[in-house]
Design brief:
The chain is of the alpha/beta class. 39% of the residues lie in helices and 14% in strands.
Length: 340
């Protein structure tokens, strides 16, 4: 997995073991308060597997964490080498087999912007704010040929209300998590019940490649095995580069969110004094998505990010820190944990 940009963290290992034990009706001898394998189990695991070692967390300066053109070039070269070593170069040349998946939050009550009022009035103007000041997480996956995998909306429910199920398009998916954000369980559900069935029903040649943000909480052994069995190659984008290398961020989500804010204002004007809620979110989002996530916009995102065609010279390096300036950045530590 390291060659594809996914270092294995202690958290990944613990959660993968917990899931394995639950699936097989077993319980480890050493559990902590959160009912996961604890410190004693982990120390025993390292003793039993001497070929594995845990490296200490490094404290990186902002200069080292900042992304430069050289960093991106090395990432492209490493990914190219991986596909070449495994005789998979044809995937990177096929837009129907190249995907990008991304999650983003959409506010139920976006910022209102400027409003109009009487010139001589000294009173301030206020927007009525929805009682539900929250955002809904949207998981979207696009292919380099401009197609869209039906969306998944993630809500903070234990049991999904029937009204929400009935409010979204039939082919969209729903996910549940305590926080309302994507986590490893929801990502597994998305891959197993949504993305993989989509590529199968669309008769897309496998294996395919799916470029994702390498958030460590999303990847588990179960997800990795699921992808391997079903011909999905997960590739982690270079950390801190989603605004440069993520097609969805580069071209789709910015106009999409601007369109969402405009659609919310329009809906509230037409339905005054009602507010946008979780129950009306899906129906409004569908109208905006169909308008802004066009094949042309999606293809442009893949091209400008260098993901398709897979070409490092297509990347917009103006968003990078110039190599010559990196030593002049102020110090700022960030956590960067590597294990092998």
């Amino acid at each position: 997995m390291a060659k594809r940009g996914f270092p294995v963290h202690k958290t990944n290992l613990i959660m993968s073991v917990k899931k394995y034990l639950e699936d097989n009706g077993r319980e480890p001898r050493y559990l902590n308060k959160s009912k996961t394998p604890g410190r004693s189990w982990f120390e025993g695991f390292l003793k039993r597997h001497s070929e594995i070692k845990q490296k200490h967390a490094e404290s990186l300066s902002k200069a080292r964490a900042a992304v430069t053109q050289d960093h991106i070039h090395r990432w492209f070269d490493e990914i190219q080498d991986y596909f070449k070593e495994n005789n998979l170069q044809d995937i990177l040349r096929d837009p129907t087999r190249t995907f990008n998946g991304d999650e983003s939050g959409f506010m139920l009550c976006p910022k209102s912007g400027n409003v109009l009022g009487p010139t001589k009035s000294k009173e301030d103007f206020y927007q009525r704010v929805s009682a539900e000041k929250e955002q809904i997480t949207v998981m979207a996956t696009f292919s380099a040929d401009g197609k869209i995998v039906p969306l998944m909306l993630i809500f903070p429910y234990k049991k999904m209300p029937k009204a929400i199920v009935e409010s979204i398009p039939e082919n969209w998916a729903l996910g549940r998590s305590d926080s309302g954000w994507l986590n490893s369980e929801v990502f597994y559900e998305y891959m197993s019940n949504h993305f993989i069935p989509y590529i199968k029903s669309s008769n897309i040649t496998r294996p395919v490649v799916l470029f994702v943000d390498g958030h460590r909480s999303h990847l588990t052994t179960q997800v990795s095995k699921l992808c391997d069995v079903n011909g999905v190659i997960l590739i982690s984008l270079l950390p801190n580069t989603t605004h440069i290398l993520q097609p969805a961020d580069v071209a789709v989500f910015k106009p999409f969110k601007a369109g969402w804010a405009a659609a919310v204002r329009s809906w509230k004007f037409q339905h005054f004094p009602k507010e946008v809620t979780r129950y009306t979110f899906g129906s409004i989002l569908r109208l905006v998505f169909d308008q802004y996530a066009t094949p042309k916009t999606i293809k442009n995102g893949f091209r400008k990010s260098g993901i398709f065609p897979f070409e490092k010279n297509n990347v917009d390096y103006s968003k990078c820190i110039p190599n010559r300036n990196i030593d002049n950045l102020p110090e700022h530590t960030v956590d960067h944990v590597v294990s092998s």
